[in-house]
Amino acid sequence: MNLKQCLLISTLFFNTIYASAQKLPYQNPKLPSEVRAKDLVKRLTLKEKVGLMKDISDAIPRFGIKKFNWWSEALHGYANQGPVTVFPEPIGMAASFDDQLLFHVFDAVSDEARAKNNDYKKKGESQRFHDLSVWTPNVNIFRDPRWGRGQETYGEDPYLTSRMGVSVVKGLQGPADGRYRKLLACAKHYAVHSGPEWSRHEININNVSARDLWETYLPAFKSLVTEADVREVMCAYQRLDDEPCCGNSRLLGQILRQDWGFKYLVVSDCGAITDFYRTHKSSSDAAHASAKAVLSGTDVECVGYAFDKIPDAVARGLIREKDIDVSVVRLMTQRFELGEMDKDELVPWTKIPLSVVNSPAHQKLALDMARETMTLLQNKNNILPLSKKVQKVAIIGPNADDSPMLWGNYNGTPASTINILDGIRSKLSPGQIIYDKACDITDDKVTETGITESGADGQPGIKATYWNNRNMEGNPVITTRVTGPMSLTTFGAHQFAQGVNTEDFSAKYETVYKPSITGDIVFKLECTGWGELLIDGKTVLRNGSWRLIPGRYVLQAEAGKSYKVELRYKQLNNWAANLFFNFGKEVSITYDALINKVNDADVVIFAGGISPRLEGEEMPIQLPGFKGGDRTDIELPAVQRNCLAALKNAGKKVVFINCSGSAVGLVPETGNCEAILQAWYGGESGGQAVADVLFGDYDPAGHLPVTFYKSINQLPDFSDYQMKGRTYRFLDQEPLFPFGFGLSYTTFSIGDAKLSKNTISANETVQLSVPVNNTGRRDGTEILQVYVHKIGDTDGPVKTLRAFKRVALPAGKTALAAINLPPKSFEFFDAENGVVKVSPGDYEVLYGSSSDKVDLKAVKLSIK
């Protein structure tokens, strides 16, 4: 072999070694994410591709693909986590009409999510709810106050929902020009979805007009896709015009991808694909359902896992592997966009430290937003704000001393919570306060506990045994006793008992109950986690999930007979552990003792309303006024109405704090109470915000994002998705409190507005200039609202919100608020062409402090 041949061989050898050391395209962070995804996907087997299409996505070590959880939540904080910052429920944040502050809230939420995820990665943890794809925001229209999940939305108006939703997405996903997304946000539930909860898996919505679809149900989704660049859309459970939404070719193909240009991924609601053949009966089996879903545009399946049958569907010719590739490229593109396939040093979000979680800055943000949610609905004789020099204040009601109530649903667990009682205590001395729960939220009876007359092992009360594992295995860590109603929580880093973990533990509670009387004995159990109640070895009640739900069992007891009572409990997942248990005879409530107790009070503050324990997603609630997480009646529960009436009859001045995630029919309460403050579910600082408003340290400025109806008699059937007669946009009756309404401790005067032009073309922007004057003696903020009505349009809304502006003014000052109205402010549905467009004609531009006609002025505009 000569020298030339040796050199040639050496060159070939080194070139081969060099080439093998080069990165493959999917490994190259300098390439576009979609290019990398396409290169990676072509290297995968069909089985591997399918494994990536489920919410718990398989790891594929040979390509460096890690396990990934598509399902995490961040509705108003990084959910199912603790400790984190818990902000107010979205319906409350909508009352702020402050999309700028909302952006900062979700910028903080995404920081906390990244920080927690960074910590999980360091520990080698990967489980559901711990990852970077968050299924938020919920931009469904809150069309009916009976819907239990309406609390998750930004109200009943398409424009307000759009503006708030865009801010949420931008805060979660990070700067649009960044190399990597901070998180992936998700617009849900697409589309025409807002209860009832009990029928969502089988209902077929087939009477929605094209106009309702395009002007009410779709605008927020369109805004999130075209303005906020949202990376995920979740398809809903129900059928729309005979096709399940997750297999709806018009919704997912024509509108979402073709008309709006959405190029990212669609995830199914949990179990929605299996609904195709189990409840909708639109597909014959899992193979057909999975093929239908993927071909329609659904890329990731949550729970159920019909997608496991995709290989079978391919083998049967129902779908081609190249169709699967389209979905897998979409989902892997987004994983590259997060940077989770690249080294941490390339991804700036991996540097966010755990110290940002519930930091002082985030706590302040939670308080600032909670204050802005506070919506004053009534203030007779200016009873509010209260003086801190008041002699005696009675703080009563079922929601006064309830911290979890403030967390809403789809929540995390805060490091600390200031409930309403805590907040009021911060304003007054102990000698000024009288506290009493007064009544339950719904029950008109109280339980005389039987625990005190129970005993096991010859000792009174309940024997409690704890294990530091979830299966009651091995040696217990401690055995102790409970001698009264059980109220246990790990909230605030509390232990159920000394030496017991705050996570990964289980317990058994045992006693023998020998009642002294014959009759009904009621057992009540609420827990987050898993609880099972046994009597004489037979299971009589199971309860528990990630939220607290009332559970009850009635035992027909015989006097003198012994009953062996056993309660088993397990802490599950990463949920905070809560356990509330009591049993005994129920006796009817009388208010005589309460009236005597508050007799010396100058004012009574009643914190009532409802609770996320009663309204929420598909809940097993069957109580008067509640069904499956929804309500069958919107009135305040009778026991609270009766309590307020008793206080009124006793001559007490009552300030009513209504905590709810939806509108409540408060007709009697407007007469029985001097003031009504709508406090929603205010998050970790909700009680402080309530107290700040009550005692004048913050001027209320919240305005209603939903109509407060007088009763359900003003509403169409809950299952009817037509908008006629619903919300302020189509209501032809006088509501109790209108959309956009809210009082202040100061007064405002809105002057005559001017348009920059009174005649414009269809593609022009016009400016509205409105003088706003603070005519009172306190600094305050008015929320200026601008509505549009097309003159002569008899089928459309009577008015519809198209702009708003928060105007902060010192006492006695005036400001000129300038609001731009772009062409889309005048878009309405054109039935002839089947599109939303700006049409020539005459329009009214209405402006004022609420949607009520008495609060609005008008100027006219012509479009040529």
Describe what this molecule looks like in 3D.
The chain is of the alpha+beta class and 864 residues long. The chain folds into four domains: 46-356, Glycoside hydrolase, family 3, N-terminal domain (TIM Barrel, Alpha-Beta Barrel); 375-443 and 591-730, Rossmann fold, CATH 3.40.50; 445-588, Sandwich (Jelly Rolls); 748-863, Immunoglobulin-like, CATH 2.60.40.10. The chain has 21 helices and 41 strands. Helix 5 (99-123) runs parallel beside helix 6 (158-173) and helix 6 packs parallel to helix 8. It starts with a helix and ends with a strand.
What is the topological layout?
Elements: H1 3-21, H2 33-41, H3 46-51, E1 56-57, E2 68-69, H4 90-94, H5 99-123, H6 158-173, E3 186-190, E4 204-205, H7 210-217, H8 219-226, E5 232-235, E6 239-240, E7 243-244, H9 249-259, E8 265-268, H10 272-278, H11 286-296, H12 310-315, H13 321-338, H14 360-373, E9 375-379, E10 393-396, H15 403-406, H16 420-425, E11 433-436, E12 445-449, E13 454-456, E14 459-460, E15 462-467, E16 478-482, E17 486-489, E18 506-513, E19 519-528, E20 530-535, E21 538-543, E22 551-557, E23 563-570, E24 578-588, H17 592-597, E25 603-609, E26 622-623, E27 626-627, E28 630-631, H18 638-649, E29 654-659, H19 667-672, E30 675-678, H20 686-694, H21 727-730, E31 748-750, E32 754-755, E33 759-760, E34 766-774, E35 780-790, E36 800-809, E37 814-821, E38 827-830, E39 835-838, E40 841-848, E41 856-863
Parallel strand pairs: 3-5, 4-6, 5-8, 10-11, 10-25, 25-29, 29-30, 33-41
Antiparallel strand pairs: 1-2, 6-7, 9-30, 12-24, 13-14, 13-18, 15-16, 15-18, 17-24, 18-23, 19-22, 19-24, 20-21, 20-23, 26-27, 27-28, 31-34, 32-34, 34-37, 35-36, 35-40, 38-39, 40-41
Helix pairs in contact: 2-13, 5-6, 5-14, 6-8, 10-11, 14-20
